Amino acid sequence: MKKKEIKKLDKIVRELCLKRDKKCVKCGIKESLNIHHLVGRTNYALRWELDNLICLCSGCHTLRRNSYHNDPTNWEGFKKRYPKRYKIINNLKNKIIKHDFEKELERLNGNNTSRHHSAGKVHK
Questions:
Q1: pLDDT for 122 beyond 60
Q2: What is the crossing angle of helices 73-81 and 83-92, to 10°?
């Protein structure tokens, strides 16, 4: 996949995550929102999987001592709060998925935002 295509898909999934969460899922702030990949973006099986993304303010994302990047206990909190999403992430994270730009674009632009849901719904 070309860099231009990757950036386009990243932008679409970012907008979908912001639309879904609307605020920092950790503290509730609505400003300075970042998108956090629970399993890093280098894992292409999950890079554009909305269940792997959450909105965080810049403080909860990287700046504070207990931020998602600095405190591994946040993963346990996510597991308790979103058990279905946690299960989906674990099922997909070690899979090798060959992405086709057009298919990903179609999946993200339609309502079928998750590979794992027959109804195409993303778990909140």
A1: no
A2: 120
In one letter, which amino acid is 56? Answer: L
Q: Does residue 68 contact residue 26 with C-beta atoms inside 8 Å?
A: yes
Output helix, strand, coil percentages for the chain, rounded to the nearest 5.
45, 10, 45
- The answer to whether the predicted template modeling score (pTM) of the entire model surpasses 0.85 is no
The answer to whether residue 116 sits within a structural domain is no
Closest C-alpha to 32, from 13, 58, 11: 58
Is 46 in contact with 94 (CB distance < 8 Å)? no
33-37 and 53-57: which strand pairing? antiparallel
Residue 49: Cβ-neighbour burial (10 angstroms; 0-12, 13-18, 19+): buried
**Cα(67)–Cα(8) distance, integer angstroms:** 27
Range of the domain at 65: 3-105
Q: For the chain, how many structural domains are there in total?
A: 1
Q: Is residue 114 part of a domain?
A: no
